[in-house]
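Study this fold:
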Amino acid sequence: MTAQGKKALILVSDFGVEEPELLRPVEDLKKAGIDVTVASDSGKTVQTVTGDKDWASTFEPDTSLEAVSADDFDIVVLPGGTVNADTLRGNEKVQTLLQATSAAGKPIAAVCHAPWSFIDARLASGKTLTSYTSVKIDLENAGATWVDQQVKRCPANGWVAITSRNPGDLDAFDQAIVEELASA
């Protein structure tokens, strides 16, 4: 299945993103014909990690958060990594971008700890989501229903959230993103 001509924004901080949760979606979405742009909060080199604690590779983003707009993309993808997710969730520009994306009826995909950003952007309430298990109580306290599934697609509130639990779910996560964009 392809989603030729669609555009995805993968948004990360410049430190602490879980390596496979960045690299695999970039690779899989490009294979599906999706134009992928990676933006970091600073626009600087991204230091990835594995298991949240071990240094992994570095990655050069295409641009910075400052230079992107929800209008330019068909989906926003948020990789996890505890430090990455925690950094992005508190960033007001990230919150504004996610609010604009959802208000435009465009999907947002988040894996592992990244659904934390839905809480701070005030997008969690009324959604059914999955995430890394330690994020469960935070999502429930913000008004979401949490499920333990490999991937969850939730169309509530006028926009689609695609969420997954961890790097082991990336096949299903990436496939759900491609299917969402191919059907749009």
About this structure: Residues 20 and 136 are 22 Å apart (CA to CA). The helical segments are 19-31, 82-89, 92-103, 116-120, 136-141, 170-183. The first strand starts at residue 7 and ends at 12.
